[in-house]
Amino acid sequence: MTSHLNASDSTVRHLETRRAQLKRLIPSHVRLIAVSKTFPTVIIRSAYAAGIRDFAENKVQESLAKLGELSDLTDVTWHFIGHIQSNKSRKVLEHFDWIHSIDSLKLAQRMNRQAAELGVSPNCCLQVKVMSDPNKDGFEPDELLAALPDLDQLTQLKIRGLMVILPYGLSAVQAASGFAKAKALAEQIDHKGMINVRMDQLSMGMSGDFESAIASGSTMVRIGSGLFGQR
Q: CA 76 → CA 52, 87, 153, 166, 179, distances in Å?
């Protein structure tokens, strides 16, 4: 049985074309993460056949079923980008290589303890709200800065940077301003010389604004509809 099983030839060709188009806009040092949430495993297999190796999910139960069906794709890197409920945090640690959405000190401390129990050290990003948005979770910038000494004590998690999701409906100028704020915050944190909190990654930019995010220093862009089409 091959890992391309059930990968439609036409779908693979379409995804190869879209990936090639996106790669012309995304520098080689920026990681293209395919947001596969809500898409079935047959589509993920087609994307895999098209050369994609980074996939992101945002719901624990849905993603665990998918990961089980796709366990033969051993070179995939799985990213979790959704809100993490406290009763689901252990499952996220057990199954994901990157966790982008650690949105509070309490959650970070809980996951650090669980990671030690599980013997894992996942790469993590701290989700931050650089613009006011009641519909999004995340650290407020001042809250994050105040939490840094405690976050720096979390040796089991590999805190690598920030994750940003901007509010919907922003103009291009507003989006660029939001991404610039995230970059400035990451630099401010980096200059503090933390031991365990690193800022070498910025997870920001989605299908509609990834070029602006890259211009502001993004190192990981999360592309869903821009790759797979509308859900």
A: 8, 25, 30, 27, 28
